[in-house]
Amino acid sequence: MAGRIPPQFIDELVNRVDIVDLINSRVPLKKAGKDYQACCPFHDEKTPSFTVSRDKQFYHCFGCGTHGTAIGFLMDYDSMEFIDAIEELAARENLEIPREAGTSAGPDYRPLYDTLEQSARFYQWQLRKHPKANLAVGYLKQRGLSGGITAEYGIGYAPDGWDNLIGQLGREKEQLEKLRTTGMLSESDSGKNYDRFRDRIMFPIRNHRGLTIAFGGRILGDGKPKYLNSPETPVFHKGRELYGLFEAHQALRKIERLLVVEGYMDVVALAQFGIRYAVATLGTATTPEHLGRLFRTTPEIIFCFDGDRAGREAGWKALETSLPHMRDGREIRFLFLPDGEDPDTMIRKEGMEKFQQRILHAKPISDFLFDRLTEQVDMSSLGGKAQLAERAKTLLAKLPTGLFKEMMHKRLGELIGLDPGSLGNSPAATTKPNRRAKRKTGGAQQTIPPVRRAIILLLKQPELAAQEELNMDWIQYEAPEINLLHQLLELIQNQPNLNTAQIIERWRGREAFPHLEKLWSMENEVQLPNEGLKEEFRGALQRLSEQRHKQETSTLIDKIGAGNASESEKQQLAQLLEK
Length: 579
Hints:
Elements: E1 3-4, H1 7-16, H2 19-24, E2 30-32, E3 35-38, E4 50-53, E5 58-61, E6 67-68, H3 70-77, H4 82-92, E7 100-104, H5 110-129, H6 134-142, H7 147-152, E8 156-158, H8 164-169, H9 173-181, E9 185-187, E10 193-195, E11 200-206, E12 212-219, E13 227-229, H10 245-251, E14 258-261, H11 264-272, E15 278-280, H12 288-297, E16 300-305, H13 309-322, E17 331-336, H14 343-360, E18 363-364, H15 365-375, H16 382-396, H17 403-416, H18 435-439, H19 443-447, H20 450-460, H21 482-494, H22 500-505, H23 513-521, H24 533-561, H25 567-578
Parallel strand pairs: 14-15, 14-16, 16-17
Antiparallel strand pairs: 1-7, 2-3, 3-4, 4-5, 5-6, 8-11, 9-10, 11-12, 12-13, 17-18
Helix pairs in contact: 3-4, 5-9, 11-14, 16-17, 20-21, 20-24, 24-25
């Protein structure tokens, strides 16, 4: 187990990283007053509502509500774990991450990454030097792969034999445990360890940082399984990762679209022919996590499947998973190849240009959905049209509200001969809230409780905690967020040099962290005075004390009324009523 990263180091890291430079390296920003703006990378929009503040070291989108620090941005945008984000920022600032002895914040995965990287290098070396690697080299050449593409994707060879990798990396107990944890060895019923991958062409799977996290192995010959993948491990979750995505980022400055195929060889063969934007799921159906990662890379996704029944069913599952992610500005299309063909065989048969045309003419998700549904009913009868409407409405209900959803309901209406407003749960049948009327109620400014106002004020200007003789009578007030306010005050009073981003990061991993981030994002929505923040903060604490006074008085009155009050409680009530 790795020692815990000291909070002081995270403070220093957040202080040194310029969030504007960090985000601008991934999302081009434009100056807008003292802050910077861009179209939000987390949802589709035409007018920029994503704001990055260098002063606050914080980003916030007024459209979708996403917000956070530099660490949070890497976790959201690059789908990093917390430790990965810390390592990325530390490397950016040329800082070494210290670890505290005797405490633990979870496992240190660096030894696992090292083990997997050593395994990848071993397999690559075996492809070049092993006496029996000629079959593997011959297979790759037969598939049309050059030495350059083979090297770029890190393809290697796992020799036949039970313990080649174990012998290379070491048989010590600690090393065997790392091999076992990373899925690189298996264990027989008698307890004997042996290499998981034997006599296979090896495809290393890399994460967004280019670190090897797993392998896929294709057998040479007729054995089974044809493809063998690494099991789930602490560093590999197949429902999140995409083979070839790292290589696509390395090859292309801007990725206009991503082609999702089914196999490792499909990705590499397409790259060999110049199509550098292919990725593959890893032995599993497309997941929401896959789609999130795909759409963070590009607004256009093409799913490519075999044209047989199994391919069509896999395509339909991908469609159902995709519907909740179809926000305006995103596009998903489906390419079904001739029966018996896959991208690897097809591109070698017809070349890049013709295959590229297939991609460009892939079927839009709307056509695939309605073509599939109309095939299942009798469109010449009223009953068949009614069946179509019911089946389609269930699917269209999954779509996010927006123009695309309205257009899909319009298309359904045209197919069955009804106005979209007659379809029950269509957007046209739903009354939209009157936002203007809602604003007249006063919004957040008039309804925000004093405890939240006090927290927002503290985050805006942490120095407010340093005031002398602050009213602390509210500490015993039983209400949500009181404990959070108290903890904030204590932290800032004990460490007065912390800025807002550092303070918020101190709460990461705690239950209150998302709520604290949300309150800070409200700073732009709540009208705060430019001057007189000290008086404003004291006033919020005073209102909390008054509320606590009322709460305590009410509780004592109820106890006396019920005949359950002690003499001391009666005296306490008398004193409260005198105030």
